[in-house]
Amino acid sequence: MELLTPHHLHCSMTVQACVAGKHVSVQKPMALSAAEADEMIAASDKAGVMLRVYENFVYYAPAVRARQMIETGEIGDIRAVRLHVSTGTSDTAWDIPLSAWLWRLNQKQCGGGPLVFDHGYHLFSIAAYLGGPVERVYAWIDQTPLAETAGVVKIDAPAVIMFQYQAPRRYGVLDIEHTPKMRIHSQYYADDDRIEIIGEKGILFINRYTAKTIDLPELMLFKDGVTTPIPVEGVEWHDSFIAATQDCIEQLKLGGQPRLDGRAGKAVLQFTLAALQSAATGKEVRPVEVK
Predict the structure, then answer these.
(1) Which helix (H) or strand (E) holds 24?
(2) Alpha-carbon distance 211 to 93, whole Å?
């Protein structure tokens, strides 16, 4: 069963589907709290069905290839992961009316803002996928009035989220900007998503996801003083959805687990919620302690 509903419905619908004996693919973010995620995991365990979070960024071919290169030691031990997101305007992007976004601006239905909590889950997922589990988080999240609502509604940006991985001497930072006056070419959302993975011997650059804002190859390696394009097939954003779906079907056939099963999805959720809690309290937050 595929659940594509507002976030506040994910937990109850997942539990009901599990009780009915259905495998569940739930859209990200998987729940509003770690407690809800635990309830969903327990229901899937009891029913003996698969629970996976539909998160496509970890299936994007340049990111998958980057992780393979990291695992083979191409850039040495990771020292930092930098992630960037900025919004924009595009004549070629999806035309989504503001009315379709309103529930994402409702705290009770969405669980957090549309950029840090909703879209941010993509980036928190890929940060964990590339760098491993996160130990602690510190964040600043500002609010920008939306011109379309005459300033009545605000969006959760600009924001900066800093984090320390559990691996020694490994850190990360995610910056998010709301820049609606920026012209971006995209067939999907007008979002600029880019990533750098800095290792002891080199740097990997993932130069696009939903949009193509800079005229560079999708994946590049800097090493030994030379920048080299890394050939990758399936670099359109829709290819990552196809790969995510194919993996789910394959794991169901084999009795395996998807890349973001319930427990992995919960860990990413705690990472995401840690950023929200840190910004609200002005304190460092450890994801594992988020309830």
Answers:
(1) strand 24-27
(2) 9
Q: Where are the beta strands (DSSP E) in 154-224?
A: 154-155, 159-165, 171-177, 191-199, 202-206, 219-223
Give the residue ranges of DSSP H helices in 93-236: 107-110, 120-131
Instruction: Tell me which residue of 233, 188, 241 sits closest to 57, measured CA to CA.
Output: 241
In tens, the pLDDT along 90-128 reads 999 988 887 888 888 888 999 999 999 999 999 999 999
Which of these ranges, 96-105, 125-134, 149-158, 263-272, has the smallest mean pLDDT?
96-105
Number of folded domains in the chain?
A: 1
Is 216 within a domain? yes
SS3 state of residue 158:
coil
The whole-angstrom separation of Cα 25 and Cα 2 is: 5
| Within a domain: 243 | no
Domain of 119: which CATH number? 3.30.360.10
User: What single string gives the DSSP state of each residue in 206-259?
Assistant: E--SSB--SSS-SEEEEETTEEEE---S--SHHHHHHHHHHHHHHHHHHT---T
Any domain includes 172? yes
Q: Is 90 exceeded by the pLDDT of residue 272?
A: yes
Instruction: Report pLDDT for 151.
Output: 79
Residue 196 domain boundaries: 57-236
Residues in the chain, overall count:
291
Can you give the pTM of this predicted structure? 0.96
Q: Amino acid letter at 33?
A: S
Whether residue 261 is contained in a domain is answered as no
Reported as a pLDDT band with limits 50, 70 and 90, residue 150 is: confident
